[in-house]
């Protein structure tokens, strides 16, 4: 991977690998807002990113300060549906997490699989797991990803998380290196997706992020995962992310245009609502299939052939 500037030379590269296991297609369904506590706040929209480097202008100072302080651990939070297919993805992801967690350059803390099926499965003893409920009354319908923001809302309320930061991940992610905390104090870090283009859908975006709140450029081209963010920030974003996801699913135009990445757009919008900008880290993740790592995991995970 080419390095764009010398500022990245001392940082870990390619920290995650996304294995493209499947392509999703979803149809329209009508949703309602689960709660009415979404608060829009247009004050203090952050605009501190250098447009060329995609890094805060105080990056060097923050980096030097970081080198002089103790590790800033982040908690890895993995959402899961409970299907057999999803289960073996989680097992491989957790295998590589354990392999890199305690290495010197790692700031990886605890790990939780947030199981949004509402019931236990056979991996409860193998992977640290918290069970949360699915959206009620079939609100997710054929778009199971809508359970993700609702799962985070529940987990954040019930969990006792020791780390100040949270990394949101998905079952089809694999760690390929020890991962440091890429967030910079109050500026979370996320991977920019080329297919998330808020400016292209300005009219639709403004239905959920009105003009008086700020420009569409305040909406980052990201999803919630992979991202590393302060726990206190995610506690603010999560309910808004959930409600916007449901509202967008009910909006015919938004549902048609955004399809299976709808909740990714919703996360970016929810962050902008709360005035939170992310550092865009293209080195956070590479998107290819790496069979060797999958094979190593399956060869070393106990009871792979008999488990899920």
UniProtKB/TrEMBL annotation:
GO molecular function: glycosyltransferase activity
Keyword DNA-binding: no
Topology term for the membrane: Single-pass membrane protein
Main location: membrane
Domain Hydroxyproline O-arabinosyltransferase-like, chain residue ranges per copy: 74-288
Compartments in which it is found: Membrane
GO CC annotation: membrane
Protein keywords: Glycosyltransferase, Membrane, Transferase, Transmembrane, Transmembrane helix
Name assigned to this protein: Hydroxyproline O-arabinosyltransferase-like domain-containing protein
Organism of derivation: Ceratopteris richardii
